[in-house]
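hey
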């Protein structure tokens, strides 16, 4: 008898779920312009933060009103299942777009109306553009190292001189080091910095040649399981716009038997990378979500030490104090420069952060649909996808992420318990 009662409750729950799926998706229909698309990346125009592109399977989504309305741009010749993993908007011509997919770059010169494939470089991983309007240059890193174009991608030249050879933790004369990050000097266009698995490299001649800039960084070579590793990995670097010789970076541990754990932290240079010194280390043993200079004051630096805790420096990173929250200047800068701080890619969809606890779905993929819905006695709605649980306290208008790794049985069990 107890089994039948439980079974009946499950059947009732499933019926309610089916009804509520219609209710829930009713609020999402206007966003669901392209069912089945998987959102991979998102880019905001640096000069016009209303212009946003999101990379989906086989194309991109374009919006000028934070996804209240949007247009889907399919890219001819690209497999509908191919993932657009990066979108770059030309810094000096808003109509020029570069999309990275399948290790190649596809370019549009007219805002996405027509497209062309650029000359193929093996296994492209990243794309960068300098800040010089008189001599714009593109850089791409791929399987064979770093390449540069002065004609917006039509022709490419190798610029690996000074970069070491390295491949999957082994010395290899055929493959150069892959590039993790590239930053450009804000006042001298000839100076560029790279971060790699082997540390920091600097160029004084627009990327033609490179020199190592690792003095003071925990980049000691370590042999582990017959492979070569480095004590720490550079994971985030920033440069000060008013005092560009001042830079900060995070060097994180590899977690190979604690490799680099004691050496990890935030490091600072005040001489353009000639030497570095650790300024934070005791509690910075993971990659900070935020490491940023205040773009208005320039002397202020903010670092996140947990999900909602920050520390601040007012002397370019020399001394630090705890702060409760980030100032509006920094939040607005992060929205423009790092859209992933405002827009979250969850389960193939785009969610906009409304406040510290609430997100709203602005573009929804159907690749990971809702499998179960529960309404508790307080009218709180819970929605379960394949691998995550969400909560809404306003009838599905806004949704708050609760946790990952929820199995369908967990939600059914909670429903049965709540109805006893």
């Amino acid at each position: 008898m107890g089994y039948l009662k439980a079974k009946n409750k499950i059947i009732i729950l499933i019926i309610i779920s089916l009804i509520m799926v219609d209710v829930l998706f009713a609020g999402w229909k206007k966003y669901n312009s392209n069912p089945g698309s998987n959102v991979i990346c998102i880019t905001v125009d640096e000069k016009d933060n209303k212009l946003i592109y999101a990379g989906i399977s086989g194309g991109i989504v374009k919006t000028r009103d934070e996804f209240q309305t949007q247009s889907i741009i399919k890219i001819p010749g690209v497999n509908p299942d191919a993932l657009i993993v990066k979108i770059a908007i030309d810094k000096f011509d808003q109509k020029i777009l570069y999309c990275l997919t399948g290790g190649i770059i596809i370019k549009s010169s007219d805002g996405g109306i027509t497209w062309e494939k650029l000359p193929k470089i093996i296994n492209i991983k990243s794309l960068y553009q300098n800040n010089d309007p008189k001599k714009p240059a593109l850089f791409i890193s791929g399987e064979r190292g770093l390449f540069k174009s002065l004609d917006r991608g039509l022709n490419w030249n190798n610029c690996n001189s000074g970069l070491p050879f390295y491949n999957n933790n082994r010395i290899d004369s055929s493959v150069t080091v892959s590039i993790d990050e590239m930053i450009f000097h804000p006042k001298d266009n000839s100076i560029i910095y790279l971060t790699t698995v082997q540390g920091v490299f600097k160029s004084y001649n627009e990327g033609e040649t490179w020199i190592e800039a690792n003095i003071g960084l925990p980049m000691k070579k370590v042999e582990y399981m017959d492979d070569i590793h480095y004590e720490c990995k550079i994971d985030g670097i920033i440069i000060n716009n008013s005092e560009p010789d001042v830079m900060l970076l995070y060097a994180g541990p590899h977690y190979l038997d604690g490799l680099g754990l004691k050496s990890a932290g935030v490091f600072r240079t005040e001489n353009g990378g000639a030497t570095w010194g650790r300024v934070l280390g005791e509690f910075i043993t993971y990659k900070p979500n935020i490491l940023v200079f205040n773009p208005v004051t320039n002397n202020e630096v903010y670092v996140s030490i947990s999900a909602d805790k920050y520390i601040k420096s007012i002397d370019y990173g020399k001394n630090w104090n705890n702060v409760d929250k980030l100032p509006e200047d920094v939040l607005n800068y992060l929205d423009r420069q790092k859209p992933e701080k405002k827009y979250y890619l969850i389960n193939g969809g785009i969610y906009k952060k409304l406040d510290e606890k609430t997100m709203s779905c602005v573009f929804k993929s159907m690749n990971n649909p809702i499998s179960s819905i529960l309404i508790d006695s307080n009218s709180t709605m819970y929605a379960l996808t394949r691998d995550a649980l969400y909560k809404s306290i306003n009838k599905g208008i806004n949704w708050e992420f609760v946790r990952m790794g929820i199995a369908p049985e967990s939600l059914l069990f909670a429903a049965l318990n709540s109805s006893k």
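The radius of gyration is 24 Å. The first strand starts at residue 41 and ends at 44.
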